TrEMBL record:
Gene3D superfamilies referenced in this protein's UniProt entry, alphabetically: Phosphorylase Kinase, domain 1, Transferase(Phosphotransferase) domain 1
CDD domains for the chain: STKc_PknB_like
Keyword entries, A-Z: ATP-binding, Kinase, Nucleotide-binding, Serine/threonine-protein kinase, Transferase
Top-level EC class: transferase
Top-level taxonomy: Bacteria, Bacillati, Actinomycetota, Actinomycetes, Kitasatosporales
The keyword Nucleotide-binding is annotated on this UniProt entry: yes
GO function terms (MF aspect): protein serine/threonine kinase activity
Enzyme Commission number(s) of this protein: 2.7.11.1
Chain positions covered by the region annotation Disordered: 277-342, 374-437, 463-492
Name under which the protein is recorded: non-specific serine/threonine protein kinase
């Protein structure tokens, strides 16, 4: 395949001598080479053949490669790799590009660690400007990731490279119809599902890239392909704490709805403002992406701005010191909230099936993942089943369970504190076992027992009977979950019994009240006993659900009315 020349190096198209393989890109190998006609150093990308394709498909693929490579050749931007030529040799296409002397962003992060917010903003500005130019020319990159961003030595110029799987708007893609190309951790959900590909998909990839630059890891990294696809399409988006200075941009780019995603020009202006002032402004037009973090969020409904409703939630008093808990009754009996769209679970499941099928993965992988294959160790939270919203932890017993209560532990009784716990006789008229070191913190009608640093929050509330009983109380609370708990998801209310009394169990995950705090998980049991309504809950970091469940079970098992 190629003509041997001096030193045994291959000569391509009579002028480009391949000297050293320097890496692999999408669908090909990249060589350091010399242009013997102009006497300059270049990089040459060799597109590798797919021997599994029939001859006609291989020919069509080669023709598309040439057509789309020629379109990329027309792009002129300081932060886009310069494509000098596209040639054919021995029936195989080669892309001839400028040679950028320097590491990729991925190599730089691996060598030196994550970058600071100012450097991330600089890189983001360069890439946003580059993709804006490409999009205006009708070219979508489709594989933006740290490995495809070069940092030129000596100048620190940021260069977007490897348009090997680029798509010219309106043309058939480089790869065969129905196949999946790209890097899943950086691929937009609408591309995963095969529903849509447009400029917005590149912007999602840039949002994930910024997170990686700032923290060293994509927010969608998981241990399996199924886990990655679920994280991209379904799981709550949790930017790293290091992204806090640039959070409005990151969240705007990682908006799942491509029609609401932050545009390239706006994102670039926001990052430039950060470099000039040290603060990132809010997205223009009141745009606030779904799943955004923060306290006291404002919601836009029908063109008007509203404060979130103050429906009961066990997490609402989980505010920083000095922020008062919501006023009013614990369990509102107001009109039910407006009808919401159908649960996302069924849609998510169908999207995951489509995405996995597009990636060449069997549906069995999806089913394994949905049944908890990711396990408690999966970064970003517990394993979930999107179609039902159940979490990977054991469900609370239902009335069909032979025993009406939880499985008791040795030494755990109504007034007995197991090892590592103490019995708290609360002035509010109840007693329970709480972990040693937890301190009492009354907040209005609620009583909290908090771990050092408030990492774990155990709460109790005692009221009179409420309409609908325990189940009605928690179902109203769950309906208002998204308003009271930023990023609320995977919530489910289950009717059950507790010590022979009518009860309901509520479990859900949410983002916490700040990006620094991170995602949290809550267990809540509400029951009626002797004309009173008791509510006990535990809120904890999503990565510590095992400890949280232990604290919750002990609190409920040892709870005694009357102190």
């Amino acid at each position: 395949m190629g003509t041997e020349g001096a030193g045994g190096f291959r000569l391509i198209a009579g002028r480009y001598r391949l000297e050293e393989r320097v890496g692999r890109g999408g669908m090909g190998v990249v060589w350091r080479a010399s242009d013997e006609v102009l006497g300059r150093r270049v990089a040459v990308k060799e597109f590798l053949p797919d021997d599994s394709l029939p001859d006609d498909d291989a020919r069509r693929r080669r023709e598309r490669t040439f057509r789309e490579a020629r379109a990329v050749c027309q792009l002129r931007h300081p932060h886009i790799i310069v494509v000098h030529d596209v040639v054919e040799h021995d029936g195989r296409p080669y892309l001839v590009m400028e040679l950028v002397d320097g590491p990729s962003l991925a190599e730089r992060i691996a060598r030196d660690g994550p970058v600071g917010p100012a450097e991330a903003a600089r890189i983001g500005i360069a890439l946003l400007s580059a993709v804006h130019t490409a999009h205006e020319a009708g070219v979508l990159h489709r594989d933006i990731k740290p490995a495809n961003v070069l940092i030129e030595s000596g100048t620190d110029r940021v260069v977007l490279t490897d348009f090997g799987i680029a798509q010219v708007e309106g043309a058939t893609t480089l790869t065969e119809t129905g196949s999946f190309v790209g890097s899943p951790e950086y691929t937009a959900p609408e591309r995963m599902s095969g529903l849509r590909t447009g400029p917005e998909s590149d912007l999602w990839s840039l949002g994930a890239l910024l997170c990686t630059a700032l923290s060293g890891e994509s927010p969608f990294r998981r241990d399996s392909l199924g886990g990655i696809l679920h994280a991209v399409v379904s799981a709550e988006i949790r930017p790293p704490a290091e992204a806090e200075p640039l959070l409005p941009v990151v969240l705007g780019l990682l908006e799942r709805d491509p029609d609401l995603r932050l545009g390239a020009a706006d994102a670039e202006r926001m990052l430039r403002t950060y470099l000039e002032t040290g603060r990132t402004p809010a997205a223009p037009g009141g745009h606030r992406p779904a799943g955004a973090h923060g306290i006291g969020r404002l919601h836009r409904i029908g063109g008007r701005t509203h404060k979130p409703p103050v429906a009961y939630s066990p997490t609402r008093p989980d505010l920083p010191e000095g922020v008062p808990p919501p006023p009013g009754p614990a369990h509102p009996t107001a009109q039910p909230p407006p009808a919401r769209p159908a649960p996302r679970g069924a849609l998510v499941a169908s999207l995951l099936v489509a995405a996995l099928a597009g990636a060449g993965v069997s549906a069995a992988v999806l089913l394994l993942h949905q049944s908890g294959g990711a396990g408690d160790g999966t970064p970003g939270g517990t394993a979930t089943t999107p179609a039902t919203g159940t979490t990977g932890t054991p469900p609370f017993p239902t009335p069909a369970t032979p025993s009406p209560g939880r499985t008791s532990r040795p030494g755990t009784g109504a007034h007995t504190a197991p090892s590592g716990y103490r019995t708290a006789h609360d002035p509010a008229g109840f007693s329970l076992a709480v972990p040693e070191g937890f301190t009492r913190s009354p907040r209005g009608e609620r009583v909290y027992y908090l771990s050092p640093g408030q990492t774990f929050r155990l709460g109790v509330k005692v009221t009179g009977p409420q309409p609908g009983g325990p189940r009605g109380v928690l179902e109203r609370s769950a309906a208002a979950g998204p308003e009271n708990n930023p990023g609320y998801h995977d919530g489910r209310v289950t009717p059950t019994t507790h010590a022979g009394h009518r009860a309901a169990f509520w479990e859900f995950t949410w983002n916490g009240f700040s990006a620094a705090e991170g995602p949290r998980h809550t267990y809540d049991l509400c029951w009626e006993e002797n004309g009173r309504l008791y509510d006990v809950w535990v809120s904890a970091p999503a990565g510590k659900v095992r400890e949280a469940r232990e604290y919750f079970d002990v609190a409920v098992d040892t709870f005694s009315a009357g102190g």
